[in-house]
Amino acid sequence: MALFVSLFLFVFLMPGGITAHDYGDALSKAILFFEGQRSGFLPQDQRLNWRANSGLADGSAHNVDLTGGYYDAGDNVKFGFPMAFTTTMLAWSVIEFGEMMPPAERRNSLLAIRWATDYLLKTVSQPNRIFVQVGDPIADHNCWERPEDMDTNRSVYSVDAPNPASDVAGETAAALAASSIAFRSSDPSYSQTLLRNAVNAFQFADTYRGAYSDNADVRIGVCPFYCDFDGYQDELLWGAAWLRRATKEENFLDYIQSNRQTLGAEDNINEFGWDNKHAGLNVLVSKEVVEGNLYDLESYKTSAESFLCTLIPETSSSHIQYTPGGLIYKPGGSNLQHATTIAFLQLVYANYLSRTSQTINCGNVYVTAQTLRQSAKKQVDYILGDNPMGLSYMVGFGNKYPQRIHHRGSSLPSIKDHPEFIACKEGSIYFNSTSPNPNVLVGAIVGGPGEDDAYADDRADFRKSEPTTYINAPFVGVLAYFVANPNP
């Protein structure tokens, strides 16, 4: 049966024939993408030089410095919830796979993390307050405008105690705690700063429980874009789990043990992304069970393995949908976010299994570390070009990739080439153009094809053509693994 599983995955992996991909090149580009998303004052070593400074007055109307951070996608808004998740995943990529990265790319990964954490530290710099967003999304989305030309309202959205923001504060705690581990050896002082602020952010999240989008003043800015749709409870467990990993303290271990049921750790265990942390939480916590025999956390391991079993078509519990070409598919926009996060979790858990020579009992099949890695590789290779379209969904990778991505800075003339101001509605001519984007956002992974594997390369179809930071972030770790292990 194990041989059958391996053979099936091998055949299922290559719908258009076997292609050897340069995973090192893909890794470099996946990290480079984040430079195209930077807000704030750009450094001299900025490599995507069609970008320039932007958002330099962010926060000034409230007498606070909120410059920096990332625009989450193809717009010019800084949404704190997905930015924090992006940061957590970049940090987890370095923690789990950093030693597999070429030294230059490990350094670039840490720079990408720090661009986010420097900003996140600003968002929690005031006691009992967290800044959750900069930019009015309605005004912003009504314009097609370069970030360097922004003249829309840079509204600042914050939550003050006793109003709740458990989701954003919990994810920010996770991001800062994970990043503290990533920086521990290279910058111990910065690592301590991150960890100290992570603890404070978690205390805010846990003391004032509730969703940030339940606050009327915040809801008008964050919804329907990054509302908390799945509840804040998972972010509390997620933040505590990362603090446990970063500190090794028993109080955080007690928290994830004693709050498992009350905070719904067994709910929605087959999801993982910026809004729902359950599958990632279960995999993260399982490390202490698989490698350390901490059996009080066994239920997390059970949930993690139940989820992983659903991904393997031969198991009796398989129920995930794949496209005819072999891509994981879930309804909704930005489908490749599921492919990159799930592949990441498969590789992380495979590492746990390898270090302990264990397998997963999926009822009628025993799933090995190799099976999980081959399943992850299927998703990676599909994204990089082994798909029915023969198209790389990473911009700038390979010979054929999306040319008309839904991204303002990429689709408008660079301010370096066209220094004249382009006003809000003046950009519409570029949005409506059928010409390729003039600026290549190297490394950007778009939302991806539909359930039929079709992709039209249409700038207006944002669900398929818009890149996001949270698609790319887990892919950094995934690619790092395959740089070191191209044939698992």
Please provide a brief summary of the model.
This protein has 18 helices and seven strands. It is mainly α and 488 residues long.
Structural overview:
With 488 residues, this protein is mainly alpha-helical. It has one domain: Glycosyltransferase (Alpha/alpha barrel). 47% of the residues lie in helices and 4% in strands. It is built from 18 helices and 7 strands. It has helices at 2-13, 23-36, 80-97, 103-123, 137-141, 166-182, 188-207, 216-222, 233-247, 250-258, 278-290, 298-310, 336-356, 369-384, 408-411, 428-431, 462-465, 469-484; strands spanning 78-79, 129-134, 156-160, 321-322, 328-329, 360-361, 366-367. The chain has a 3-stranded antiparallel β-sheet. A two-stranded antiparallel ribbon has the order 4-5. A hairpin with a 4-residue loop joins β6 (360-361) and β7. α3 runs parallel beside α6. The longest helix is centred in the N-terminal third of the chain and has 21 residues, at 103-123. The radius of gyration is 21 Å and the shape is globular. The two termini are 19 Å apart.
